[in-house]
Design a protein that fits this description.
The chain is of the alpha/beta class. It has 15 helices and twelve strands. Helix 4 packs across helix 12 and helix 8 packs parallel to helix 9. The structure holds pyridoxal-5'-phosphate. The site of pyridoxal-5'-phosphate has 13 residues, from helix 6.
């Protein structure tokens, strides 16, 4: 009887909540990563290769500048667009590094991480029913961000083309409703990146169909095998279509500072600033000051961290080869996306059993798209010592199968 009453109360409460929460939010699936890592919480002695953030602490000079800014009493709002000095530094940085020209006055906006930039980009260009093409596997927020903005995410599976989007596949998916494409390289979760030649091929289709390009290049500093080419450098006619997103989280190990930036045509940046001023107002001043220091003195630290990730990538690839798990060679970021089909387990079974039996956490591929049930994501943003230990456990797990 008591059980029945409790059951009825739960049902009434769920019904009431259905009326309170918007349909759009109810329709969103919870992040596959979060779901899995709720399991990890509370377990002892787990080696986590699941995290998507640097294991390095933010370089000291950058932290010191944040502390100093507080000591000096910088605790106010900044302009909605962000500190002029930071926008100026970003403009100079992009010019120096890539020959890209963005005007700090009206073509650069400081955001609360690339995460906010993605949301602003989607909300400022999407009308209800517009289609946005997303190559998959993709970062977990892309589909939800497009859906929340009223758009329709159209996924292209890249499994058969080494996780890279091919121009012909993009061309096939375009129609009158296609507004743009949301692309990320180096990629989370596969680590693949595109050469200039490959990007040129995609840019021709983009021009043919008059598409906008939301380009998430947050891992640009972590490219190992060739020089990173920003999409916006492919020509003036392409640059006009690009909403360039980047930030300080990955290259400078500043995830907790929550600071990123958006560059684009002044009309688009102004539209994004409108939303930003009503929702965020501005990025935190302490973080913006730290970001200025990152651009002033952080280059050497970025290089050092990159060298270490590169070393780890090579180690992880070697071990995957020894264990016999097939894996596309990643060119950047800090992830590998091997196939676990040979083990006879799905990615979810593999991740769950590996966690329970050997206490190593990896992310099931299905977190990045429904077609990736044969893959897992391993992050090498973990010390070489941890990686060595983790691979011993993974090897013995596979041998015990
Ligand atoms: C591809 C990609 N874009 C954006 C983000 C979020 O970046 P930020 O910390 O700047 O919001 C992440 C974080 O994992 C990511 O992997």
């Amino acid at each position: 009887m008591l059980f029945r009453i409790k059951h009825d109360i739960v049902q009434i409460r769920e019904e009431a909540m259905r009326n309170i929460i918007s349909n759009k939010v109810q329709d969103l699936a919870p992040s596959g990563i979060r779901k899995f890592f709720d399991l990890v919480l509370g377990m002892e002695d787990v080696i986590s290769l699941g995290v998507g953030e640097p294991d390095f602490v933010t370089p000291w000079k950058i932290r010191e500048s944040a502390i100093y800014s507080l000591e000096q009493g910088y605790t106010s709002y900044t302009s909605n667009k962000g500190l002029y000095k930071l926008r100026l530094y970003i403009g100079r940085h992009l010019k120096r590094k890539y020959g890209l020209d963005y005007d700090p006055d009206n073509e650069i906006l400081i955001t609360v991480g690339v995460s906010e930039g993605l949301d602003l980009a989607a909300r400022s260009i999407i009308n209800p029913g517009d289609e946005i093409i997303i190559p998959q596997p993709s970062y977990v927020s892309y589909g939800p961000v497009v859906s929340l903005a009223g758009g329709i995410p159209i996924y292209i599976d890249t499994k058969k083309s080494g996780f890279k989007l091919r121009p012909a596949d993009l061309d096939k998916k375009c129609n009158k409703k296609t507004k743009g494409i949301l692309i990320n390289y180096p990629s989370n979760p596969t680590g693949i990146s595109y050469t200039k030649k490959e990007l040129k091929g995609l840019s021709e289709v983009i021009l043919k169909h008059n598409l906008l390009v939301i380009c998430d290049e947050v891992y640009d500093d972590l490219t190992y095998d060739f020089r990173h080419t920003p999409f916006a450098t492919l020509g003036q006619n392409i640059k006009e279509r690009v909403i360039y997103l980047n930030g300080f989280s990955k290259g400078y190990a500043m995830t907790g500072f929550r600071v990123g930036f958006v560059c684009g045509q002044k009309e688009v940046v102004s539209a994004m600033t409108k939303i930003h001023q009503y929702t965020m107002l501005c990025a935190p001043i302490t973080s913006q000051m730290a970001a200025c220091e990152a651009l002033h003195s952080g280059a050497k630290s970025v290089e050092e961290m990159k060298k270490e990730y590169h070393r780890r990538r090579d180690y992880v690839l070697e071990r995957l080869g020894e264990i016999g798990l097939d894996c596309i060679k990643p060119q950047g970021a800090f992830y590998v996306f091997p196939c676990v089909k040979k083990t006879g387990l799905s990615s979810i079974e593999f991740a769950n059993k590996l966690l329970k039996k050997k206490k190593v956490a990896v992310v099931p591929g299905t977190a990045f798209g429904e077609n990736y049930g044969d893959f897992i994501r391993i992050s090498y943003a973990s010390s070489l010592g941890h990686l060595k230990q983790a691979f011993e456990r993974i090897e013995s797990f596979i041998k015990s199968k």
